Task: inverse folding
């Protein structure tokens, strides 16, 4: 049997599976077929929840030194990621069809090339080379791969972790293969992520004639006051490991087409990316405080001193902030990157959330993958030289991790 030692071949196979969330598209099965010759035991659990599509997932484990399926000797490393991809957009705008895996001028084209079938293809190749060179593992490696990262993420990594834990799986460290490098391979490891929470403020007034404001109550006045209280003062100045927390007002809606009508209702929505000086609970409490204070102190207009009546609705639960402090994991990966690329990666907590937010509850987790420049874009593509280099980085990391 041929081992999946070539990341470009692995990636081409994966790209040709049209796995736009929530479709499996053959991608997980293709990955399973790649891993089987290496001796991985494979499960492909499907998770369901009413109101969301069923999702295919994959958990593959390779245990070295005759440990079988049980908890083997030596450390257990998890590689995590997703095979689902975002829609290709206007397919005719692509230089090469988005699921063709065409190679052109040293680059392979296709939806998911960098986000993140490329990372999976390289890690599979690295494991294959490691096993080929060193024989049985001195520990265990698991692939924890979902088909629901780009979608609602309900039937994906969170449930897969639970499912594996219930079967007795424990991990010592995890690497997520998301594209983390802004410009060049070796730029950046993500060692944490900011938290995120979104809310909507609804202010209700009394609709009326714009010329007779004493008979009405304009909710826009109240909303403007409340929004100002969200924005000023700033939430914090940043911390040692994180940039300052940020609140963005994402929309303000009144929907009033008439010039002579005072509207009856006004809403505003916002999203906060918060650092490790907050938890989801404390940041939400801060927002409630600011709004209550502003609502109570507001004078709607001279002679009108009723507080602003508002409702605050939180969308979903906050996703928590986290920071990985495992020096051995971070140090081993950094050293591998430096040895292969000659660049010392920046340890960063910037950017959006990822499935690492779930994994951090089980073991220390870091993220490192390809260059992210074309992710989610028309003509998403990866340089063949980067795929080879990332494979060597992962391979070196495996050698040191299992040394
Ligand atoms: Zn991704």
Result:
């Amino acid at each position: 049997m041929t081992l999946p030692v070539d990341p470009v071949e692995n990636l081409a196979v994966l790209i040709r599976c049209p796995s736009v969330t929530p479709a499996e598209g053959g991608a997980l099965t293709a990955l399973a077929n790649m891993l089987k010759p290496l001796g991985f035991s494979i499960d492909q659990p499907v998770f369901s929840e009413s109101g969301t599509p069923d999702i295919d997932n994959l958990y593959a484990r390779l245990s070295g030194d005759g440990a079988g399926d049980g908890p083997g000797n030596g450390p257990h490393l998890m590689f995590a990621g997703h095979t689902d991809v975002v829609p290709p957009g206007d397919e005719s705008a692509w230089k090469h069809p988005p699921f063709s895996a065409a190679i052109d001028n040293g680059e392979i084209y296709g939806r998911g090339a960098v986000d993140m079938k490329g990372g999976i293809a390289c890690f599979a190749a690295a494991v294959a080379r490691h096993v080929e060179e060193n024989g049985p593992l001195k520990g265990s490696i698991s692939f924890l791969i979902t088909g629901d990262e780009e979608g609602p993420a309900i039937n994906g990594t969170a449930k897969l972790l639970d499912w594996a834990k219930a079967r007795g799986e424990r991990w010592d460290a995890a690497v997520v293969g998301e594209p983390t490098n802004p410009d060049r391979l070796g730029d950046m490891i993500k060692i944490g992520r900011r938290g995120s929470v979104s809310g909507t403020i609804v202010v209700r007034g009394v609709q009326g004639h714009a010329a007779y404001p004493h008979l009405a109550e304009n909710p826009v006045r109240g909303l403007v006051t409340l929004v100002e209280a969200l924005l000023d003062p700033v939430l914090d100045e940043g911390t040692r490991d994180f940039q300052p927390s940020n609140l963005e007002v994402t929309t303000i809606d009144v929907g009033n087409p008439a010039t002579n009508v005072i509207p009856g209702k006004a809403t505003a929505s916002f999203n906060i990316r918060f650092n490790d000086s907050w938890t989801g609970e404390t940041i939400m409490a801060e927002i409630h405080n600011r709004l209550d204070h502003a609502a109570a102190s507001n004078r709607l207009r001279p002679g009108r001193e009723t507080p602003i009546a508002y409702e605050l609705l939180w969308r979903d639960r906050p996703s928590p902030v986290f920071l990985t402090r495992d020096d051995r994991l971070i140090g081993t990966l950094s050293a591998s990157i430096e040895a292969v690329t000659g660049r010392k990666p920046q340890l960063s907590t910037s950017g959006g959330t990822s499935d690492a937010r779930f994994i951090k509850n089980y073991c220390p987790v870091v993220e490192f993958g390809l260059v992210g420049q074309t992710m989610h874009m028309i003509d998403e593509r990866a340089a063949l030289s980067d795929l080879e280099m990332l494979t060597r980085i992962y391979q070196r990391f495996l050698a040191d991790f299992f040394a």
Summary: The radius of gyration is 25 Å.
